[in-house]
C-alpha cells in the first residue's frame, strides 16, 4: 500500500491489485504520522489534525487556531501533537485537551510512558516529562477498563472542574462524585446519578431551602418516603408533607399535622388535614371558628352530628341567617382507610456498579497511617451522637430520683437522647457474660485442617507417590536456622523453638489459645501446586525477600508475614465500637485476640514495634476494665460491692466517650446508695470531660442534690484521692507504695501471692515471670520491601 497526495486529497493505493483502497479530502497536509501497528494515521495540516484508519476512513478532525507543529502516537493509542505553545492529546473518540504548556516550540519524535522525546528549534534533542494521568484516565473510560479507572480514582490526584464536567458529559456522574469538594456540585451530581444517600449528606451540609425541596422531589421520584418526609420537614413544606402522609396512610402523623396547623394559625392547613383524616368534628370546628356557619351546619347535618347541628341552628337563628337545606341523599366525604403501610416503595433489585464501593474515605485510606494508637477512633467517638448510640449495656441504673427536679427540668428517667437504653438492648447489655463461647471454638475447625500437622496428613495421603527431592537446603530449615523472630519460626513449622522464644520473651506458659496463630502462619508461608500423575503435590515456600536470580540454598531467608500493624489497629477500632455498644463479651474477645496476635507480627522498624506495644497496652487496659464490670454484674445482691466495682471502673485509662459512660454509671450507683460525697466527686470528673448538654445537665442536677446532703451513708473500700492499680485476680485496689507483681504479656497487676500463676486477663502468661520483652522488629536487612499475605 502506498499513500499518495494530490492537490485536494490523500489516496491509499494498492500496488499489487493496482486499485484505490480509500481516499480522504483533508485540508492541505504537511506531515503524516502512523502509529506503531500501522492501523491509524494522523494528517497534520496547518491549523488542523485529521485522524483516520489505514483505509482512510475519517474518524474525526481537530481544528486549532494556531499552527500545528508536530505529532507522535503514544503506545496506548493516544495521539499527541504540539502547537506553538502547547502539547495536546487526542483520544480515539475525538476528545482532546492540553497536556503541557511550552515556553518554546518543540517537534515530537517519540512518546514513551510519561516521557516525550523531541527536538527544539536549535536541533538539540530534549526529553520532557509530562503527566499523562488525565488522558490515560479518559482512555480507560472510553475502553471500559473500569478496574483501571477504580485504581486511578484511588491513587491519583485527579481534580478540577474540567474532569468533573467531562465525566458528567460522558455519563459517569457517579465517578465525578468522588472528585468533588464543593457541596453544591456534589449534590447536583448525586441527584443526577440517583445516589440519594450522598445527596442527603450534601443537603445537610448546605441546609438550604431550595436544596431540601430538590432533594424531596428526587426522593419522591425514587419512592424513598423517609427522605421525602425529612426534606419536607427541613424546608417546612407542610402542604406537601400532609399530602405525603395521606398517600402513605400515616393517619397518626396527619393528626399531628392538624395540631401543628392550629398552632401556626393556618386555617386552610387545619381544614385540609381534617379533610384528609375524615375528621368531621374538626372540620365543623374550623368552619365555625372562621364564621362559615351555613357550611358548618351542612357538614354537621350531613354526617349525623345532631348536637353540633342543633347548636349551629341556634346561632344561625340568633344572627338572622337562613338555615340551609340538607339533601337526604348526600354522600359522606370520608377518605378510605389505609389497608397496609409501606415505608418506601419496593424497588427492583439491581446489581451495584463497581464504582458504588468507592467513597471519599476509601480514597483517603491508601495513605500512610502514622498516627499513634491513642488517636485511633477518636474522630468517631468524639461527640454526642456516639453517646446517643451507646447501647443498653451503658446505663441500666440511671433511674434517679433527684429532689427538686420538676417537670420543667431535665427528665433523668426518660432520657430519650441519652444513654438509658434498656428498652433498646437486644443483646442483654451487661448480661452478655452468659454468651461466653468455649476457648477452642475458633480454632477447632482449623485445627482439624492443619492440626497434627499438615505433613503427616499429606504423607498418609500421598505415601504411595514419588516425592521430588528438594534442591539445596529446605526453606523451612533455612528459616529456622537464620531467623530470630517468633513469627518466622512459626512460619517455618518450628513450633518448639517458637514456643521457647515466647516463654523467654513474654513468659507464656499456656500455648493452647495461640494454636491457631501458629497454624495460620505455617500455612501462609507455603503454596501447594499440582504436578503430573504419579507425583505428590509440590510445596513451594513463599519468602518476602525472594529474588529471581537467587534460588535454592542461596535464596531468601525470611518467610512471608501474615499479620501487620494496620490489621491490629483496625481490630482495635472494631473493639472500641463494641464497647460503645455495650457488647462487652464480644469486646473482651476482640481485645484478647489483639493481645494474642501481637507476638506473631513482623515489622520493619522499632517505631512500628513501639506502635504494636502501644496497641497491646490499650487492649490490656480495656480488658482489665471490662473484667471489673463483668465482676460487678456477678455481684448482684451485694450493693456495696457493686458500688465499689463501679467506682473502680472509672479509674482505667479509657477513651473519653467510654470514661464518660463509666462515670455516669458510677454516679448513678453512688447516688442511689446515698454516698453523696463520692457521687459529687464523680459528677465533677464527668463535667470535666465536657459531655453532651443533656448528660451535663443531669450531672449538674445530681451534683446540686449531693451538695445539699454532704455525707456518705456506706463506707466503701475506695479512696479516689489515693492513686491505685487493680489486682486482676481479686478486683481490689493496690494503692501506691504496696508491693505487687506484673504479667509480662499484658502488664496486668497482681498481689504478690499470685506470682507464678496463669494470668486471668491474657490467659496465657505466667504472672511475675522474668522476661526479655516483646521483640518483633526485623532489622537484619534495612530497606528491603516486605509483602504480606
Task: State the main characteristics.
789 residues, alpha+beta, 4-stranded antiparallel sheet, 20 strands, 12% strand, disordered C terminus
Please tally the helical runs, counting DSSP H or I stretches of 4 or more residues. 30
Query: What spatial order of strands do you see in the largest sheet?
Result: 4-5-6-7
Number of strands: 20
Name the poorly predicted regions: 357-385, 403-465, 551-555, 781-789
Structural class: alpha+beta
Overall geometry? flat
Q: Please state the average pLDDT score.
A: 75
Q: How does the major sheet shape up?
A: 4 strands, antiparallel
Cα distance spanning the termini: 54 Å
Percent of residues in helices comes to: 40-55%
Radius of gyration, in Å, reads 38 Å
Kindly estimate the percentage of residues that lie in beta strands according to DSSP: 5-15%
Note down, in words, how this protein is organized.
The protein is flat, with a radius of gyration of 38 Å. α13 (293-302) runs antiparallel to α14. Strands 4-5-6-7 form a 4-stranded antiparallel sheet, with no helix packed on it. It is built from 30 helices and 20 strands. It has 789 residues and is an alpha+beta fold. The longest helix is centred in the C-terminal third of the chain and has 29 residues, at 606-634.
Give a concise summary:
This protein has 789 residues and is α+β, with helices and mostly antiparallel strands.
Amino acid at each position: 500500500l502506498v499513500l499518495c497526495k494530490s492537490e485536494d486529497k490523500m489516496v491509499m493505493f494498492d500496488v499489487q491489485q493496482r486499485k484505490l483502497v480509500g481516499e480522504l479530502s483533508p485540508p492541505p497536509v504537511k506531515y503524516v504520522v502512523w502509529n506503531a501497528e500501522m492501523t491509524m494515521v494522523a494528517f497534520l495540516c496547518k491549523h488542523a489534525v485529521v485522524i483516520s484508519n489505514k483505509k482512510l476512513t475519517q474518524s474525526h478532525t481537530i481544528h486549532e487556531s494556531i499552527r500545528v507543529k508536530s505529532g507522535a502516537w503514544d503506545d496506548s493509542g493516544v495521539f499527541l501533537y504540539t502547537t506553538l505553545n502547547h502539547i495536546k492529546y487526542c483520544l480515539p473518540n475525538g476528545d482532546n485537551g492540553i497536556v503541557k504548556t511550552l515556553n518554546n516550540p518543540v517537534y515530537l519524535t517519540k512518546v514513551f510512558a510519561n516521557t516525550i522525546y523531541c527536538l527544539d528549534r536549535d536541533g538539540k534533542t530534549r526529553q520532557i516529562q509530562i503527566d499523562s494521568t488525565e488522558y490515560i484516565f479518559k482512555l480507560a473510560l472510553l475502553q471500559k477498563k473500569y478496574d483501571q479507572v477504580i485504581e486511578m480514582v484511588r491513587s491519583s490526584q485527579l481534580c478540577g472542574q474540567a474532569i468533573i464536567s467531562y465525566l458528567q458529559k460522558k455519563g459517569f456522574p457517579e465517578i465525578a462524585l468522588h472528585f468533588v469538594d464543593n457541596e453544591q456540585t456534589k449534590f447536583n451530581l448525586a441527584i443526577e446519578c440517583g445516589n440519594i444517600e450522598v445527596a442527603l449528606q450534601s443537603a445537610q451540609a448546605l441546609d438550604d431551602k431550595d436544596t431540601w425541596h430538590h432533594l424531596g422531589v428526587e426522593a419522591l421520584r425514587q419512592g424513598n418516603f423517609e427522605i421525602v418526609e425529612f426534606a419536607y420537614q427541613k424546608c417546612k413544606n407542610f402542604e406537601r408533607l400532609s399530602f405525603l402522609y395521606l398517600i402513605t396512610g400515616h393517619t397518626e402523623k396527619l393528626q399531628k399535622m392538624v395540631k401543628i396547623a392550629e398552632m401556626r394559625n393556618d386555617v386552610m392547613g387545619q381544614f385540609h388535614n381534617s379533610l384528609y383524616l375524615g375528621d368531621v368534628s374538626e372540620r365543623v370546628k374550623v368552619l365555625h371558628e372562621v364564621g362559615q356557619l351555613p357550611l358548618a351546619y351542612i357538614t354537621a347535618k350531613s354526617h349525623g352530628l345532631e348536637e353540633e347541628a342543633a347548636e349551629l341552628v341556634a346561632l344561625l337563628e340568633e344572627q338572622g341567617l337562613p338555615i340551609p337545606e340538607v339533601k337526604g341523599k348526600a354522600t359522606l366525604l370520608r377518605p378510605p382507610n389505609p389497608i397496609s403501610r409501606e415505608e418506601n416503595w419496593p424497588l427492583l433489585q439491581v446489581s451495584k456498579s463497581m464504582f458504588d464501593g468507592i467513597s471519599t474515605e476509601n480514597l483517603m485510606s491508601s495513605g500512610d497511617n502514622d498516627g499513634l494508637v491513642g488517636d485511633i477512633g477518636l474522630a468517631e467517638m468524639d461527640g454526642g451522637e456516639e453517646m446517643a448510640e451507646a447501647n443498653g449495656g451503658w446505663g441500666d441504673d440511671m433511674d434517679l430520683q433527684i429532689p427538686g427536679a420538676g417537670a420543667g427540668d431535665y427528665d433523668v428517667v426518660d432520657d430519650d437522647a441519652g444513654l438509658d437504653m434498656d428498652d433498646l438492648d437486644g443483646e442483654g447489655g451487661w448480661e452478655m457474660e452468659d454468651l461466653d463461647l468455649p476457648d477452642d471454638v475458633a480454632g477447632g475447625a482449623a485445627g482439624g485442617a492443619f492440626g497434627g500437622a499438615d505433613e503427616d496428613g499429606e504423607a498418609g495421603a500421598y505415601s504411595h507417590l514419588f516425592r521430588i527431592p528438594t534442591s539445596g537446603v529446605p526453606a523451612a530449615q533455612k528459616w529456622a536456622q537464620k531467623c530470630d523472630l517468633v513469627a518466622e519460626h512459626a512460619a517455618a513449622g518450628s513450633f518448639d523453638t517458637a514456643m521457647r522464644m515466647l516463654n523467654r520473651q513474654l513468659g507464656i506458659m499456656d500455648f493452647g489459645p495461640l494454636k491457631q496463630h501458629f497454624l495460620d502462619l505455617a500455612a501462609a508461608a507455603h503454596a501447594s501446586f499440582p504436578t503430573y500423575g504419579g507425583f505428590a503435590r509440590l510445596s513451594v515456600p513463599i519468602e518476602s525477600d525472594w529474588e529471581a536470580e537467587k534460588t535454592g540454598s542461596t535464596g531468601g531467608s525470611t518467610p512471608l508475614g501474615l499479620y501487620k500493624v494496620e490489621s491490629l489497629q483496625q481490630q482495635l477500632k472494631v473493639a472500641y465500637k463494641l464497647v460503645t455498644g455495650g457488647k462487652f463479651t464480644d469486646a473482651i474477645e476482640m481485645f484478647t485476640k489483639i493481645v494474642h496476635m501481637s507476638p506473631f507480627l513482623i515489622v520493619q522498624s522499632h517505631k512500628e514495634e513501639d506502635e504494636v506495644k502501644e496497641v497491646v497496652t490499650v487492649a490490656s487496659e480495656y480488658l482489665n476494665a471490662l473484667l471489673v464490670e463483668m465482676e460487678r454484674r456477678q455481684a448482684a445482691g451485694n450493693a456495696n460491692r457493686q458500688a465499689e466495682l463501679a467506682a473502680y471502673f472509672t479509674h482505667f485509662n479509657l477513651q473519653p466517650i467510654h470514661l464518660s459512660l463509666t462515670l455516669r454509671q458510677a454516679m448513678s450507683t453512688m447516688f442511689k446508695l446515698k454516698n453523696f460525697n463520692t457521687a459529687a466527686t464523680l459528677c465533677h470528673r464527668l463535667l470535666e470531660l465536657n459531655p453532651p448538654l443533656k448528660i451535663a445537665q443531669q450531672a449538674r442536677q445530681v451534683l446540686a442534690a449531693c451538695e445539699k446532703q454532704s455525707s456518705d451513708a456506706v463506707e466503701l473500700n475506695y479512696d479516689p484521692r489515693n492513686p491505685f492499680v487493680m489486682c486482676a485476680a481479686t478486683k481490689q485496689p493496690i494503692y501506691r507504695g504496696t508491693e505487687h507483681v506484673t504479667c509480662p504479656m499484658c502488664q496486668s497487676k497482681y498481689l504478690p501471692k499470685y506470682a507464678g500463676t496463669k494470668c486471668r486477663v491474657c490467659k496465657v502468661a505466667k504472672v511475675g515471670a522474668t522476661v526479655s520483652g516483646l521483640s518483633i522488629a526485623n532489622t537484619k536487612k534495612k530497606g528491603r520491601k516486605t509483602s504480606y499475605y
